[in-house]
Amino acid sequence: MSGATTGLGIELEKSTPAASQGANMEISISRQDLLRELTATQSVVERKTTIPILSNFLIEAEDDRITITATDLDQSIKTSCAAKVKKPGSSTIPARKLYDYIKLLPDGDISIKLMENHWIQIRSGRSNTKMVGMARANFPQVPEFPQSSVTSIPAASLKNCISKTIFAISNEESRYTLNGALLILKAESLAMVATDGHRLAHIEKTGETLSNVSGERKTLIPRKALSELQSLLSNTDAETIEFAEDDHTLFFRVGHRILTSRKLTGQFPNYEAVMPRENNKFVIVRSEDLMGSIQRVAQFADERSGAVKVRLEQNEVKISSSSTDSGESEDIIETPYNFDPLVVGFNSSYLIEFLKAIGNSGEVRLEFKDAQSAGQVRPEDADNEYKYRYIIMPMRI
């Protein structure tokens, strides 16, 4: 398989002599440290694969550190931690088996040793286990983090942008350019936008100072990478992350961990064209009240469409649904409304996902033009440093 190119623009390494692979790798490592890094990387490992090596971790030991790499050819995670390296070297170990086994060991030091024929011996206290590994030479080469055009992005801002948009990414494989979110970097701001064609989430954070960004830098990040990034950002104390890209690959350095992802190609839609500009009828309601009403009423919505009817009348919002199978339901929220009456239908789960994303607290503003035009929902918080908008196409009801 040497020389074959795969998803990430990765080259599978050519065989190297056993000696340079460190045929007798031997290390001692704290179970807690090892488990923490295995937990961070195991989600990338390919579960069902026709290429067996992708079910393995690559473990490399030198200079009192071990590096752990996992890849599914679309993305990879590389992480490291301190270890006592008695003999430097490298090996690949079945990822799920290693992770599940290390989880079951008691705390303390673990000794890992590479034996003949790629077998791995793992000792901990009175436990002694041998696992069947594979040749390191078969493990795909993962792209190296570039040294140029690296941008530092505030970790908290990026994490918030992901959580406010990731749920709006399309699940339809055929809509390729909608299978990710668009990151928009400017010298003083970062924004993220995602859409599945039925709804669109857009968030912008101003007042940032981003290095190596002139004009506007747009990058389409696949959903899988955003999900991994979200997990890495939730488990780091780092205040900033480093972002870089080359022709094929996106790179994110989060603390001592590096995530790489194959780029999504294609043109993201012109989202600015669908941003509502004449939604002059609005109502402000408590998020908690709206969430409760929608969740109750949605129990009786048509199962396939999940459609609920939102009726705006003098000083009240009526939310209702009905289906021949389950019955009908209506909830009324009293709140100031002084515009013409309006009835509009929405997919209930789209509204619920937005309310969950904002933490179901405070107030939200629902803005409408008419029953046929896109509605806009946003948090009613004038002081917020984030500008967050959620646009939903209406349903025929």
Automatic annotation (TrEMBL):
Its main location: cytoplasm. GO terms for cellular component: cytoplasm; DNA polymerase III complex. Residues 1-23 are annotated as: Disordered. Residues 153-270 form the DNA polymerase III beta sliding clamp central domain. Residues 274-396 form the DNA polymerase III beta sliding clamp C-terminal domain. GO terms for biological process: DNA strand elongation involved in DNA replication. Forms a ring-shaped head-to-tail homodimer around DNA. This is Beta sliding clamp.
